Amino acid sequence: MPVRNKLIGPAAATAAAILLVGGCTGQSDDSKSPSGSGSSAATPHGYVEGASEAAEQQSRLLLGDPAGGETRVLDLITGKVHHTDRRPDASALTTDGRFGYFHTPDGVHVLDSGAWMVDHGDHVHYYRAKIRQVGEMPDGRRVTIRSDAGVTVATGADGRADVYRRADLEEARLGSPVELPGGYAGAVVPYAEHLIALTGGDDAPAELAVLDRSGKAVDTPKATCRDPRGDAVTRRGAVLGCADGALLIHEQDGELTARKIPYGEDVPAAERARAFRLRPGSSTLTATAGARAVWVLDVTESRWTRIRTGPVVTANTAGEGTPLVVLETDGALHGYDIATGKETGATPRLLKNPPRTVAGEGPAPVIEVDRSRAYLNDPEGKRVHEIDYNDDLRVARTFALDIRPALMVETGR
Q1: Checking DSSP bridges between strand 115-119 and strand 224-225, what pairing results, if any?
Q2: DSSP states of 58-78 as a string?
Q3: What pLDDT was estimated at residue 19?
Q4: Are 306 and 289 spatial neighbours (Cβ–Cβ below 8 Å)?
Q5: Contact 252, 259 (CB under 8 A)
Q6: 397 with 412: CB under 8 angstroms?
C-alpha cells in the first residue's frame, strides 16, 4: 500500500534536518563559532546556539512527586539534582527525548530538560544546555504528546489535535499552535515529514490517514486498525497497536507503505498490547500481555514473542542481544532471554513498598532504558536505581532523593 511523499523529497528532507540542528555542513570541528564581534568565521559542524556538544550521551532523569508537587532533574553525568518548578496534581510525565511534559488537570506544562540527541544515521550529536521552563499548554484536556524534529502534536481524548512548532519550544516558548481539522482515534504521530493518524473507528475499524503538517490528507492508504491502543516510532517505521497485532508504516525513498504485523494467534482483549515501551532508536518494543506475561515485538523481523513472567508491573529492553528487564510485584527486577523465554537472573528486592497488584492505584514505577543502563524509580524509598543490564542486572548506582519520584522519564537519549 504505497503512499507517495508529496511534501518533501529526500534531498529537501535532508536539508530540513540540517537546518534543525544548526548545520551539519561537514566543516571541521576546530572551526570558530560566531562571536558578538561580528566575526564571519564559519559555524562549526553540529553547532547549536546556547548548547554544548559532548562526545557521549548526556542523560538526565526528570522526576515528579504527584502528592507534593515537587519536581527535580537528576543529571546522570554529574550526579547533581536540580530543583525545578512545582507541578501540583501532575498525574503523568512523558517525554520526547528532550522536553518533559507534566500532565495536570489544568493543562500540560512543558520543561526543557537541556539534554538531547540528534541522530543523523551515520553519526550522532549529543547536547547539553540549561534547564528551562517553556510554558503551559492551557487546554485542560487529557492529551497525548508525540514529537519529531519539526513538530510536537498534542492529541486530546476528544480526538482534537494541536500542532506546535518544535523551533518555538527550543526557544523556550510555545508559540501559536495549529489545530488540525477533524477528529482522530488515537494519538497523531509525526513521522517522515508527515502526520500519521487514524480516523473513524466508533463502530468499525479505524482507517489510516497520512496528513501533511497542516492536517491536509496527502493520501489515504487502504489500511485499518481495530481498537487502536499504543504507538511508537522506531528505526523501521511508526507502529500503531491494533486488536489483531500492529500496523507498521514505513518510509523509504520518499514513499510510505503500511502493513500489518499480526499476533499470529487469537489474543484475548485483556492480554493485548496496550502501550509500548522501548529504548529510543531501537526497533524492539515491549508491552504487558496480561498479568503474568510480556509481549516483545521485533519490528525488524515482524515477529511477536510472548514471554511468560511472574506478576508483571512494567518491562523494557534495550533491544537485540540484551535481556528483557521486568519489574515484578516482588519488587525485584528480573531478566529474561528474549529468544528462549528463560529467566536469566534477578536483583534483590529494590522497591521499598512494591505494588501488590499489577494494576495498582496511581502512577506505577517505570523502567527507562538507554544504550548501557536501565533506571528504576522507587517512590516509597525516595530513590532511583541505575542498573547495568549487561552485567547480570547489577545495581551500578543508587541516587537518594528528597522527593517521592513516582513520575520519571529519561532525556538526552
Answers
A1: unpaired
A2: --EEEEE-TTT--EEEEETTT
A3: 36
A4: yes
A5: no
A6: no
